[in-house]
Amino acid sequence: MTETALKILHEGWGLMLLRGAAMTLLISCFGMALGLLIGIAGATIKVSRARFASLLVSGYTTIVRSIPELLIIYLLFFGSVQPVADLADRLGWEDAMTSWFPALVGVLAIGLISGSYSVEVFRGALNAIPRGQVEAAKAVGMSGWLRLKRIVIPQMFFYALPGTNNVWQTALKDTALISLVGLVEIMRAAVLGAAATRESLILYLMAGALYFIIGAGSQAVFLLAERHYGRGMKGH
């Protein structure tokens, strides 16, 4: 098996897998960033108790969390591929359409999916902040922006870290589904390599090792962040 693995690496499939890993990280990071923006905005709306806006946010989270991730990707891809292709033809961007459209769909899909879970993560984080601290800040004349900067935001992100870690790990694995619309990430690279070399087991083991390295590495980063930002917090 070792000789076969070395042969696969020598033929360039190892580099292909590494490029796929870079694409996986790219899609996950941009998608997660979009999801965090959605999550923070949605959580703020739900905590503010604005009835109509809260109903819209609840409808979004319920719909997205009830539909399989693969179906969301298909709906986004096949629902927009023709209009985007027509626009690319008019602007002469056919190459960009071929290269980047699946990636853009991936970022949007991961963003919508992770955002639907992040709303509840950040809502819980906001509710975990002791109300007494905010009231005390008001009593000493602290402005709304200063309260946000010194009390709300630091604690919100600290309390949200464990849940955000779970959402991130899920987003990483969801990128494998985007390979079905043509994006060459880790899973797609492994499938192509398996078809070309007929060494499916080794290629999929390599793909699994890359997912494990990325997942374990990010888990360590989140744990370090929790320890760092938890200094001075009650119980830390």
Overview of the structural elements:
The chain is mostly helical and 236 residues long. The protein has one domain (2-229): Orthogonal Bundle (MetI-like fold). It is 85% helix and 0% strand. It has nine helices and no strands. The termini are far apart.
Gyration radius, to the nearest Å? Answer: 22 Å
Total domain modules: 1
Into which percent range does the helicity of residues fall?
Answer: over 70%
Tally of helical runs? 9
CATH architecture: Orthogonal Bundle
Order of helices and strands: HHHHHHHHH
CATH fold-level topology: MetI-like fold
Question: What's the quaternary structure here?
Answer: single chain
Unreliably modeled segments: none
Question: What is the topology?
Answer:
Layout: H1 2-10, H2 13-48, H3 51-66, H4 69-91, H5 94-128, H6 131-139, H7 144-174, H8 186-197, H9 200-229
Helix pairs in contact: 2-3, 2-5, 2-7, 2-8, 2-9, 3-5, 4-5, 5-7, 6-7, 7-9, 8-9
Spell out the key features of this protein:
single chain, 236 residues, mainly alpha, MetI-like fold, 85% helix
Describe, in short, the structure shown:
This protein has helices spanning 2-10, 13-48, 51-66, 69-91, 94-128, 131-139, 144-174, 186-197, 200-229. With 236 residues, the protein is mainly α. The longest helix has 36 residues, at 13-48.
